[in-house]
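Input/output pair, single chain:
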Amino acid sequence: MTLTEAEKRKIEEEEKYRSELRSGVFQEKHDKVKSSNFFGLVGNLIKWILILIVGIIFARAFMQGFNSYDNPSTDTPKSSPSYVQKDLTGKVSFDGSQFHIENQDSRDWSMCKFTLNSDYKFPDGGAAYELIKVGEILDLYPEDFTQSDGTRFNIYSIKPQQIFAYCWVDKDTPASVLWTW
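Output:
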């Protein structure tokens, strides 16, 4: 059986590789590459850690800007000692297509604002829902809730976890409740 020139070259290269392995030449080359990569990996690791820290700082600052919307503590005048915030009595349910918010209080709720999952508001902007009478049920679609940039709540990609309600009762008393599930 005769070998072609290409097969002979391949055999010679394999033999040269094996002899380098036996003599330690390959190990020296491998150690040089390994040592230079070690310092490169440490440098890259430090860069990624710094990028992660800066990203976390920016994300926290960004999210704090959204959490300031409708904060009851900023809506409550500090100068009036007779101004007491009360809790709303009601319940919320979700049937897969709508939220049902029921006023079980002894008072009507007026100028109501709702927040879904801390980010999505209803109604959007500075508006408020005018009136929810005692015993009345308000039905809201998930897409009625929007973020400040206009993004609507998507029930297929986000799980509803909580609704915060902030309303006025007795025309001069704020009240709120947080429902979670």
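The beta strands are 86-87, 90-94, 99-103, 109-116, 120-122, 129-132, 137-140, 162-169, 173-180. The radius of gyration is 33 Å.
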